[in-house]
């Protein structure tokens, strides 16, 4: 399921022995991202994960891979800005914003929930370090226990809240940052737990499509649902609406209160009494 990265010009020369003549030289600078972008993407990720990181470890930039999008989507869920492989038995939950547009897709497993999203970032790495620090501050302000741990991509944030245990994994890329959020019951996101292992496997095979549109730093990249998932979501919403309409029609009518007789008058209230007598008595001393 791992994609193969495109080779840079230097790598191509090494692999072919440098036997191409000038007439066979191809200028790739006009291709998507260009070799400069590919080198910068690799450098950004390598700096993020450290010098001992596995070079075949994702997340991958779409422009780095030999496979086209349709091929990658055969083994991954295409969400526009990210293509995410689904673990065995995983179920999808779509989170909508107030405007009715999808803002997050959660993968629910038997051990807990995994959410992977991509964000706009500067060309140079380092955004995840800042985001992790901000998350730690926010969690501590909510009286949550917070610790920094080291994973395959570097720092991981572990938090224990009153509602759930959380783990945040971040990876810096070229003009993008991926954040993976794990949520589960107590102990579910401890290092090397089943949920953490599943999430790391998913993240290692995730592909990011940053696109060419400008986005402010830290802005979530757009989530676009596949047509099949959109149709299923619309059908579920329609079914819920019809069920609510049916229940409202079947509800028994509430009896209307009868009108009071014309000759019946409402008794007037006397002055309210407190612990020290009536209101007038309290005011008058």
Q: What would you note in describing this structure?
A:
The structure is a single chain. The protein is an alpha+beta fold and 285 residues long. It has one domain (9-19, 27-234). It has seven helices and 13 strands. It has helices at 9-16, 34-49, 69-73, 127-141, 194-204, 227-250, 279-284, and strands spanning 60-61, 77-78, 82-84, 91-96, 102-108, 113-120, 145-151, 154-160, 165-172, 176-184, 207-208, 273-274, 277-278. The strands form three sheets. A seven-stranded antiparallel sheet has the order 4-5-6-10-9-8-7. A hairpin with a 4-residue loop joins strand 8 and strand 9 (165-172). Residues 7-35 and 264-285 have low confidence and may be disordered.
Q: Looking at the structure, what is the overall shape?
A: globular
Can you write the helix and strand succession as a string? HHEHEEEEEHEEEEHEHEEH
Bin the helical content: 25-40%
**Mean pLDDT level:** 78
| Number of helical elements | 7
List keywords for this structure.
285 residues, alpha+beta, 13 strands, 30% helix, 23% strand, globular, disordered C terminus
In short:
It contains seven helices and 13 strands. The protein has helices at 9-16, 34-49, 69-73, 127-141, 194-204, 227-250, 279-284, and strands at 60-61, 77-78, 82-84, 91-96, 102-108, 113-120, 145-151, 154-160, 165-172, 176-184, 207-208, 273-274, 277-278.
